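INTERNAL AUDIT FORM
Audit reference: QA-55
Scope: verify that the stored structure record matches its stored sequence.
Auditor: D.O.
Record contents follow.
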Amino acid sequence: MAEKKILLVEDNPVNRRLAIFLLRSQGYQVREATSALEAFEILKSESFDLIVMDIQLPGMDGLEATTKLRGEPATAAIPVIAVTSYAMSGDRDKALAAGCSGYVTKPIDKTIFLAEIGRHLK
C-alpha cells in the first residue's frame, strides 16, 4: 500500500516540527505549508489524502480556508482535521460547520492526534 500523503498547514515552527515528527513516525508522507495561501498553491499541483489545518493562520484563517476547500471540486472530498489552541465551548462546532472532518486541540496529545488522523485515513 502506498504511503498516505498529508498536507500540514501550520505557521508555528515548533508545532509544525512536532506534527511532522508524529506523522512521519507513522509512515505518512508530509508536505508542509505555513499559510492557507501557500496550501492552495501546493494543492494546484499535488493531491493529498488528508489535510491537517491550523485554525489560527496569518491572512486567511483555517476555517475560511476549509470552507474554500469544500467549495472546490478537486479538494471537496479531502478530510480536513482542525488543530487549534481554541478550546472554548462551541469552537469544535464552528470547525465542523466550516467543513472540518475532525478537531484536535493544542497542546497536541500524540495519542489523540494520531488516532484522529488514522480514523480519517482508513
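Auditor finding: record pair retrieved intact. The beta strands are 5-9, 29-33, 50-54, 80-84, 102-105.
Action required: none
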